[in-house]
Amino acid sequence: MILPLTINSPHFYGCVNLSKNKLLYSNAGHFFPVIMRADGEIEELDYSGLILGVQPDFEYRNLKLKFKPGDTLIVSTDGVLEAENEEGEFYSEKRMRAFLSGLAGRGAGEIRDSIIRDVEKFSSDRKERDDTTILVLKRN
After folding, report:
1. Which of 67, 84, 115, 119 is most solvent-facing, going by the fewest CB within 10 Å?
2. pLDDT in tens, 6-31
């Protein structure tokens, strides 16, 4: 069975092939999605083509990786990673990866809600400046 995925931005597109334990994907954003493996290891999907619409004939690479039971895909928009604290610091991909490392074994909804709470805590509930879309897909 193959499941198509998209996230509102739109900058990420992927298909999960359950029978082959594969995730096929491409990214057209400036933030990299991550895979949290069942053992808690965090892998950055460090490919991005141009932002959509910049060059009409741009050919995006199609990549694939193993996506086994227990693995979790986390994709977010810049409103999450660029949330600012009172000192003007961004939440950042580095902070997100460090935070995710403590969430291994949890369900997709709990991971999403935990990220939202952590970003809100970091930014001291400052008014949002951008969208805050998070996709969390856990493979069972």
Report:
1. 84
2. 554 568 888 888 889 999 988 887 67
Which residues make beta-bridge pairs with 23?
16, 65
Residues 77, 37 contacting (CB under 8 angstroms)? no
What distance lies between CA 99 and its chain's CA centroid? 13
Put simply, whether the predicted model's pTM sits higher than 0.85 gets the answer yes
CATH number of the domain at 2-138, please?
Answer: 3.60.40.10
Domain ranges of the chain: 2-138
